[in-house]
Description:
Radius of gyration: 20 Å
Helix content: 40-55%
CATH superfamily of the largest domain: Vaccinia Virus protein VP39
Strand order of the largest sheet: 3-2-1-4-5-9-8
Number of domains: 2
Largest sheet: 7 strands, mixed
Number of strands: 9
CATH class of the largest domain: Alpha Beta
CATH architecture of the largest domain: 3-Layer(aba) Sandwich
Strand content: 15-25%
Number of helices: 10
Structural class: alpha/beta
Shape: globular
Order of helices and strands: HHEHEHEHEHEHHEEHEHE
Distance between the termini: 50 Å
Amino acid sequence: MSFVLRQTAAVLRKGARVLEKCADLQKKIVQKVMTNYDMMTSLDEPYYAQQYLYWILAACKEKYPKENPRVLDLGCGQGRLAIPLAQWATQGQVIGVDFTPAAITCAKQYAVQKKVENINFYQSDILEYIKSIPENAFDIVMMTEVTFFMPEYKTVIQQLHNILKPDGMFIGAFWSQYYRLLQCIKNRCWDGAKTIMDRKEGYWGDNPAWFSWDTAQGVFDMLRDFDFSNIKLRGIGIASGIEGDSLSSIVQPSHLMKEEQEKLMKIEISLAEKYVDCGRYILAIAEKNT
Length: 290
């Protein structure tokens, strides 16, 4: 029996080391991307930030007319959504957290350039950061375009429920299954396409990184199961994309004149509720059950 236990323990230790190496690799890949890719200055990202903010600010203004919420943006990157939220929440406070040092450095610089003083940025692992937060600490917690490369994202969302104040707001953005499927087909990655169709997370092809993707119904069910209500879902980027992705073959916002961008924005916003699953991302806005 002792031999079996020793062998089992050895296997578990080996498995733990493998998982730890995978987690480290995952973080290194994400940090490399966020170090080299500035979402504040990228050609197309400001367009999609504007689309996010159309929905996010409308919900925030309705719920917090005094412009005084306490906001936490997890995985804030260079602050493309955190800074505009701080500019709106003049009587409130915004905290941005990201585990990529270069992104946090840029975010702080952009906040200074824009003379936004009611915002603070911290470099930290998301899971470690939220462990230090007391219950009912924030009115709004946001995680946009973060969950798809975070294997423990469901655990994080469950814990966010605790740090939100009663009736607090969760804002998240999830990779759409349909978008990932189109991307695989565009790249003739047939095994990857099957993975996307059969599962909601994992690896495909020779990609060393873990990803997740979901449907509107899947996101709705998950948030409902985590005790959120009044769940609103919107598709972001219904008919357009950034360079290299599957939807950019339709149109890339940065290739349009300003007037054309405005027309595209109106079209995508008008389609966002009806065609949620067709978006590049699924935006979810929900409230904590009290």
